[in-house]
């Protein structure tokens, strides 16, 4: 692989116009045809490609009499840039379906980094002043950039409310696709850094409560042991909040209960294992006095901690009591947080239906107990959710491999 001179650190801010040039040269096999496709001069395209190579510190093309072919490093970058440009094309198509004229098809070719970064900054802050400060711009400069982008989009991106301007449906769609595009470029940059011997990769995981206690932490620990320079962020929240982050490419994958046939069409799921709920109580709970595991009928009179309304776990809760011919017991508390569940269980005689893995460490420590066997009819698939069109980075692939290993081992320890 060829190398070119570079500064000690990998340059992060290669302009979008230079990345377009790299992708076009790769697609057309040379500068002349790429220049025609981009409506630029061959000299401008050549300068853009050479600038990208200097910035990344890697030769992206092999030059020969028959044209220019991407190097192995160039193929890594080109794949990600092509996916980023496709996200911008998807943005234009989505705007077209939302009322923009056919001329919006030129948006991926016309937009610049400054316009897209202004949009992302404005989406992340409640006012233009706050967004401008975060982006390092004056407020008039940010406002002008947003106006230019709105002109290129050919449809309004904001709506006025009594609290100020906010993104409308078209604006939210454009922000989502822009963030996906920038995520692809970031991954391409990170993969090139590995070619240069610098691991700058990052992975963001969205973790639902039952995955936060054992599955995600152990997978993260294994991944970091094998790749210590990797930077991992774990975010928790509800399924709805985490899938929003997933669609916006703010997280790379979501771990926890799957939705199966009820999932949205733009998401893809991988089953790691099938879980069944058990009733969990504190050690020394009156139910345990006879040493027998309890039925739902014996559990029903105690105060219950229930799942959040409208969740699949809540539907399972209802179904289990209906199948047992019992009325749903009064729920004293509804909680999403494992920490809250644990504290309340330890403090009194409450009962909760949990995944065995959620209570695993406390059961091992003798603080909590499984009060029932795994309950038939409570089966649910646990696994990984990604965007359907996602292409995992090498770092994300290592996290996924670790999750598979941890899940396979955890299944062997589940109560029977």
What would your notes on this structure say?
This protein has about 425 residues and is an alpha/beta fold. It has three domains: about 90 residues, Orthogonal Bundle (Arc Repressor Mutant, subunit A), CATH 1.10.10; about 110 residues, D-Maltodextrin-Binding Protein, domain 2 (3-Layer(aba) Sandwich), CATH 3.40.190; about 100 residues, D-Maltodextrin-Binding Protein, domain 2. A five-stranded mixed sheet has the order 6-5-7-14-8, sandwiched between helices. α1 packs across α2 and α6 crosses α7. The N terminus is likely disordered.
Features:
416 residues; Arc Repressor Mutant, subunit A; D-Maltodextrin-Binding Protein, domain 2; 3 domains; 5-stranded mixed sheet; 50% helix; disordered N terminus
């Amino acid at each position: 692989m060829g190398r070119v001179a570079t500064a000690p650190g990998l340059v992060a801010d290669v302009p979008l116009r230079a990345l377009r040039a790299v992708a076009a040269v790769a697609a057309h096999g040379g500068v002349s045809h790429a220049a025609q496709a981009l409506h630029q001069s061959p000299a401008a395209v050549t300068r853009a490609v050479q600038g990208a190579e200097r910035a990344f510190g890697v030769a992206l093309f092999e030059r020969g009499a028959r044209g220019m072919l991407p190097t192995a490093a160039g193929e890594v970058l080109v794949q990600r840039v092509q996916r980023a440009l496709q996200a911008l094309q998807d943005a234009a198509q989505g705007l077209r379906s939302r009322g923009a004229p056919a001329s919006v098809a030129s948006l991926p070719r016309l937009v610049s980094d400054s316009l897209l970064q202004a949009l992302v900054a404005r989406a992340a802050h409640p006012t233009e002043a706050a967004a401008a400060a975060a982006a390092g711009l004056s407020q008039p400069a940010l406002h002008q950039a947003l106006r230019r982008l709105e002109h290129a989009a050919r449809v309004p991106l904001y709506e006025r409310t009594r609290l100020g301007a906010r993104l409308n449906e078209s604006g939210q769609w454009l922000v989502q696709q822009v963030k996906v595009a920038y995520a692809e470029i970031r991954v391409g940059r990170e993969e090139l850094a590995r070619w240069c011997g610098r691991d700058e990769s990052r992975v963001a995981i969205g973790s639902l409560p039952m995955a936060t206690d054992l599955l995600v932490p152990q997978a993260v620990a294994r991944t970091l042991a094998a790749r210590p320079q990797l930077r991992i962020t774990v975010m928790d929240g509800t399924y709805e909040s985490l899938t929003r982050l997933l669609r916006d490419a703010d997280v790379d994958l979501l771990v926890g209960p799957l939705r199966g046939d009820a999932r949205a069409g733009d998401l893809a799921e991988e089953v790691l294992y099938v879980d069944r709920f058990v009733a969990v109580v504190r050690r020394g709970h009156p139910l345990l006095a006879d040493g027998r595991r309890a039925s739902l009928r014996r559990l029903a009179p105690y105060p219950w901690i229930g799942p959040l309304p409208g969740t699949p776990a809540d539907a399972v809760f209802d179904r289990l009591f209906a199948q047992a011919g019992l009325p749903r017991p009064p729920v004293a508390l509804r909680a999403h947080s494992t920490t809250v569940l644990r504290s309340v269980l330890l403090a009194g005689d409450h009962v909760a239906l949990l995944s065995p893995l959620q209570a695993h460490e406390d059961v091992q420590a003798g603080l909590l107990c499984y009060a029932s066997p795994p309950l038939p009819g409570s089966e649910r698939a646990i696994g990984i959710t990604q965007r359907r069109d996602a292409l995992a980075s090498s770092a994300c692939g290592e996290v996924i491999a670790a999750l598979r290993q941890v899940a396979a081992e955890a299944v062997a320890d589940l109560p029977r």
